[in-house]
Amino acid sequence: MLNKKSVDDIQAAGKRVLVRCDFNVPLKDGKITDENRLVAALPTIKKLIADGAKVILCSHLGKPKGEPKPELSLAPVAARLTELLGQEVKFAADAEVVGANAKAAVEAMKNGEEFSKDLASLCDIFVNDAFGTAHRAHCSNVGVSSLVDTAVVGYLMQKEIDFLGNAVENPERPFVAILGGAKVADKLSVINNLLEKCDTLIIGGGMAYTFLKAKGYEVGESLVDDEKIDYCKEMMEKAEKLGKKLLLPVDSTIAAAFPSPIDAEIEVESVPSNAIPADKMGLDIGPKTAELFASEVKSAKTVVWNGPMGVFENPILAKGTIAVAKSLAETDATTIIGGGDSAAAVNTLGFGDKMSHISTGGGASLEFLEGKELPGVAAANDK
Ligand code: AMP
């Protein structure tokens, strides 16, 4: 075996680190059509960021043959990396590979190490109680933790880890996971991971229509991510193979158009999921589905919920979300609400104190449910 030093063997804190990546991704009309290479590069990039390095990324893209070609710019890569990393990746546009812009951008890079040191100089012991940022490696969590002798978690962080961790790793069964919200693409890893851990996975909200289309249903003008249809098929097959229940809406509340403004009066009707007219869109789960989901919650011992069942900002389209919230409020099961919209919905409906735990972290709770290690948590000392 080759015995080469790796990023694990260097002291990168405060240093300028140039990383030669392979970001040669397929592009169509300026959009990345396969981001495998970006995702595969993340561990190294994240490690260097966590170490407090000034990270400079470079790559080729396509075959420019020595000439700058705008259609082969790495700008879309920088934009997508910004999303994947949750922090800005600046794109240095220059006519040459190392031009004035690249040099100036490196010059201007802040020294994370210094900020971390400043923070660490204030204390003898560091307590991290910010779960909402635990999925990001920042100076004020990971950086400072690495520079003090004692870095521990606070009670809120502990509570979040206990509830979410137990639910995913050691749930009292049956364990029902409910996912909703707009897009399948935002929750690919959550669906995949929860399917393995739960007994029943319930899918509502806008993301359900990509699943329904994958089943061959007409979904009309409903929100659909055509690129994720195969993924949905895969997940349905996976559920079957694992013997897990995967519940989709059996009926939908539909309208002719998305309400504008979002809380506008809107004319709706409810139809079976396989009978959505081609010129209508599904904007909430229907009443039969609300009943089906609620009865599944009733027989559960652990319930995790993330994402609304419909366009809950509109009272006429909030009925499915309210029904699910109510079913969680009425059960004795352990009920855990992932942050974001579902937390807001539960609180505004007045069901907040009926839940076992409402997470304070939207992105962080999602990453937890994806089974990822949160850098802000990992940075604390082990017992
Ligand atoms: P997310 O940010 O993914 O949790 O999604 C929340 C948003 O999804 C809310 O603003 C809802 O209005 C929206 N949403 C839920 N169901 C639907 C639907 N059937 N069609 C369009 N948007 C929806």
What does this structure look like?
α7 packs parallel to α9 (229-242). It is globular, with a radius of gyration of 23 Å. It has helices at residues 36-50, 75-85, 100-107, 112-121, 139-145, 155-169, 188-197, 208-214, 229-242, 287-298, 319-330, 341-348, 362-369, 375-378; strands spanning 16-20, 27-28, 31-32, 54-58, 125-128, 150-153, 175-179, 200-203, 245-247, 251-255, 269-272, 281-285, 302-306, 334-337, 357-358. The protein contains 14 helices and 15 strands. α5 links the parallel β5 (125-128) and β6 (150-153). The chain has a 6-stranded parallel beta sheet, with helices on both faces. By secondary structure, it is an alpha/beta fold. The chain has 3 domains: 12-107, Rossmann fold; 112-153, no CATH class; 163-369, Rossmann fold. The chain binds adenosine monophosphate.
Biggest sheet descriptor: 6 strands, parallel
CATH fourth-tier homologous superfamily of the largest domain: Phosphoglycerate kinase, N-terminal domain
First-residue to last-residue Cα separation: 35 Å
Strand order of the largest sheet: 9-8-7-13-14-15
- The count of strands amounts to 15
- Please give the CATH architecture of the largest domain: 3-Layer(aba) Sandwich
Query: Overall mean pLDDT score?
Result: 93
Radius of gyration of CA atoms, rounded to a whole number? 23 Å
Low-confidence stretches: none
